[in-house]
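Job type: complex structure
Entries:
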Amino acid sequence: MKSLRLYAKYLRIHFLSGLQYKGWFLMTVQVLFTVITDPLGIILLFSRFGRIGAWSAEKVFLVYALALTSFGLAESFARGLDYFPWRMIRSGDFDRLLLRPRSLLVQAAGSFFHIHRLNRPFGGLVAVIWCLYALEFKATGLNVLVIVLALTGGFLTYTGVFILTSGLAFFTIRSLDWIYIFTNASYQVAKCPVDYLPRALRHMFTFFMPMLVISYYPAAAVCGWGQPYWKGLLAFPAGLAFSLFAALIWRVGVRHYQSTGS
Amino acid sequence: MRVKAYLSLFRVQALADLQYRLAALAGATTSIFWGLVEIVIFTVFYTYSERAGAGIPAGLSLNQVVTYVWLAQCLFSIQPLALDSEIQAKIENGNVSLDLARPMDLYAYWFAKIAAGRLTPLCWRGLAVLAAGIVMPAGYRLGPPASWANLLWTLAAAASALFLAAAFGCLLSSVRLSVDWGSGPVFMLILVSQVLSGSHLPLQLWPKAWQRWLFLQPFAGYLDIPCRMYLGSMPLEQAAAAIALQWLWIVVFVIVGRLLMARQLARIVVQGG
């Protein structure tokens, strides 16, 4: 509880300091911009090539938007962890966190917050709602629950990726760029209809990093694409399990920490 | 005399960046993965979609798109996706005053630094991506250039692209010089440049009605123009004009960047200490 309050305070301070800049209102324009540009490629592809078998643009887009929103949420609310290897470890700033008698993960997560990062989850959410509407989504309690749990599980999954990266950064300091495979590159995979996805990719993003578990299965469950509800509901436990696994690596990493920088 | 100083600055920065071979190769794994995913998506559209042949009238067959993806992943690394981290830090912590104290032209000084920072990712990361593209199995493989002449024009266009990227990077740094505006304007400029470069989707696959403007806008020069030359999807008679277009935009970016920098320096706020 105390940690949560601390985290909220961090966010508030970062938010207020963000408002000090003259150009802060440009943020709203940025939101609009990202909302339009992020999916532009896939929209143009569908407008040129038409649907793929049973997959209409809305269907592909729903899966993509769920993954995108999850990533955006994690990127917005765990920005500090995203930056951690670059801004905290290499500079030696992590030493200061160790001195404070508060949760390290909370301090690291709250160390950065950028207002303009909110544009991705916002745009993603708009896209999710629009697609659900276009696909004649029935807003029953269960369906809404599946979607909410999918986004929560997705948030946990992507936060887990950041925690994992930060944990690994204790060992390698540099050379962590490959982790983008599980962040920005991972939701690109969702642009491909799941039935056509090469098996290796499909397994990697189901059983190791559960990107498809938090996007495709919930979408398929609520829209009736032949996947059972229990698979759709796996999103939350899968996300939780992945982030707990990441937290374990982080713990080992902290134990292993030797200061760098000055 | 002066030029020599900037050239050596460029050399020092480039050599320093090249030390991080492992980091570059780690970055290449992401590019390769990203490229493979894009190829899968294009293959699905070119094979299973309702209008599977719709790429051909745009001038791109599936094999050409696959080659485009690899070239784009290679050239993508020269695009400024953020400010030069060192320059950004200097602006934020006030060390920009140190740079101002040097008996050098600040714009040229930054240009040399940024140009070096744009070139080095191409060396390790870019080459690793190309090598990966060449050894891929059929269907995922980087194809050969349309002809030797096409290859030479591609190299010329890629070299101009480097200057274009550096000039745009300098323009961004000049914009960022006004600390009280924060990073918002720069973020938006970068986003525009990224979308219009064709790295998300080859510009030829965009709607037909926009083609003319898409070709003339500055960011086609990053990788779309070099790719068209390599694939032969642009007649070679136009190649010289395309490179002239790249240089036109370089000149525009340099002039605007310099003017903006002069304006910003006239009332610069140095913060920190």
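Summary: The mean pLDDT of chain B is 88. Chain B touches chain A through 41 residues (CB under 8 Å).
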